[in-house]
Design brief:
about 220 residues; alpha+beta; Alpha-Beta Plaits; 8 strands; four-stranded antiparallel beta sheet; RBM45_RRM2; RNA binding; RRM_dom; elongated; about 25% helix
Length: about 220
């Protein structure tokens, strides 16, 4: 895992505190903070764990944070923990988009086009996730179109989208006249494609080059 410091960020310590030591995970709703700590303490020294709860009912939303003392420990946790946790680096606390990310993560990444639960293998407790009753208004599918003004390198784009579990294939194409980049990405579930679009649409890759990510019709029933 290679983590680069943004030029726009403040001191290295600020970046380390805000962006590189805190991870965001999807967890079963019955987990306590102690359960969360127990699952992730093997990867390093934990400063604190917290579970996101409904402000009205106090019920867990099935999402949590784990804060490590070192960036290397957070990176190891993301790499080595069960894929069912969907572990990613957390947004900095001072970003206003954080609450939107929580709601999106909670409401949309549980959609599964062929059943009522996401296929969390290896840890039976993940089967407790229920299917969200709300429907996604945008027409979605398991396939994405990625457009860039710069050409893509197959291996690099694959590695980027493979950060989201369930990547099935990455087909990179190039327009010989414009030299722009175009690729088709497909995931095993609509849930993975939804999250990939949410996280990577507008992402600068390489820096200064924004990716445009949209859904492609794949023939499936998007209402599922």
């Amino acid at each position: 895992v290679f983590i680069a410091q943004s030029r726009a960020s403040g001191s290295h310590r600020d970046v380390e505190d805000e962006e590189l030591t805190r991870i965001f995970v999807m967890i079963p709703k019955f987990y306590t903070e102690e359960d969360l700590r127990e699952k992730f303490k093997m990867y390093g020294d934990i400063e604190y764990c917290s579970i996101i709860k409904n402000k009205t009912t106090g019920e867990s939303k099935g999402l949590g944070y784990v804060r490590y003392l070192k960036p290397s420990q957070a990176a190891r946790a993301i790499e080595e923990c069960d894929r069912g946790y969907r572990a990613i680096l957390a947004e900095p606390k001072n970003k206003s988009s954080e609450s939107l990310e929580h709601d999106y993560y909670s409401n949309n990444t549980r959609q599964e086009p062929r059943g009522n639960v996401l296929p969390f293998c290896g840890q039976p407790e993940f089967c407790s996730f229920e299917k969200n009753e709300s429907r996604i208004q945008e027409s979605v599918s398991k396939r994405l179109s990625v457009v860039s003004r710069l050409p893509f390198i197959q291996e690099q784009l694959f590695a980027l989208f493979d950060l989201v579990p369930g990547l099935e294939y990455c087909d990179v194409q190039r327009d010989p006249h414009t030299n722009s980049g175009y690729a088709v990405i497909q995931y095993s579930t609509a849930a993975s494609a939804i999250y990939a679009k949410y996280k990577l649409h507008g992402f600068e890759y390489p820096p200064g080059n924004r990716l445009t990510v949209i859904f492609l019709e794949d023939g499936s029933d998007s209402s599922e």
